[in-house]
């Protein structure tokens, strides 16, 4: 990937977004940078070739304006806690399945 992940993360953070990652495409030009609005937690994406702080900011502003009043705003800390619990549950489930395979 020509654009380093650190560079992409810096663009997202500088544009006011919450870094979520990269959805890899078949070619680099079809890969998407994923980020969320800190206000609405709505996920947005930009082609990796268009990921600049300015474009991230513009996408967030546009998304917040279009969808901001339609969604309940869940605090980011709550979402992070839910994700943490889900990961723990998945790990526990994987261990349970592995134990059953060995019986």
Descriptive overview:
It is extended, with a radius of gyration of 17 Å. It is an alpha+beta fold and 103 residues long. It has helices at residues 5-14, 53-67, 76-101; strands spanning 18-23, 32-36, 43-47. Strands 1-2-3 form a three-stranded antiparallel β-sheet, covered by helices on one side. Helix 1 (5-14) crosses helix 2 (53-67). Helices cover 50% and strands 16% of the residues. It contains three helices and three strands.
From the spread of the alpha carbons, the general shape counts as extended
List SSEs in N-to-C order. HEEEHH
What strand line-up does the widest sheet have?
1-2-3
The secondary-structure class comes to: alpha+beta
Q: List the uncertain runs.
A: none
Number of strands: 3
What is the average per-residue confidence, as pLDDT, rounded to a whole number? Answer: 87
Helicity range: 40-55%
DSSP strand content: 15-25%
Q: Main beta sheet: strand number and arrangement? A: 3 strands, antiparallel
What is the gyration radius calculated from CA atoms? Answer: 17 Å
Number of helices: 3
State the end-to-end CA separation.
44 Å
């Amino acid at each position: 990937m020509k654009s380093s992940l650190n560079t992409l993360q810096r663009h997202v953070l500088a544009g006011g977004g919450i870094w979520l990652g990269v959805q890899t495409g078949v070619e680099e030009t079809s890969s998407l940078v994923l980020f969320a609005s800190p206000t609405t937690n709505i996920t947005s994406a930009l082609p990796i070739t268009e990921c600049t702080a300015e474009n991230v900011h513009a996408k967030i502003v546009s998304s917040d304006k279009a969808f901001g009043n339609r969604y309940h705003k869940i605090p980011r800390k709550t979402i992070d806690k839910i994700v943490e619990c889900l990961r723990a549950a998945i790990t526990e489930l994987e261990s349970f399945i592995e134990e059953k395979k060995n019986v």
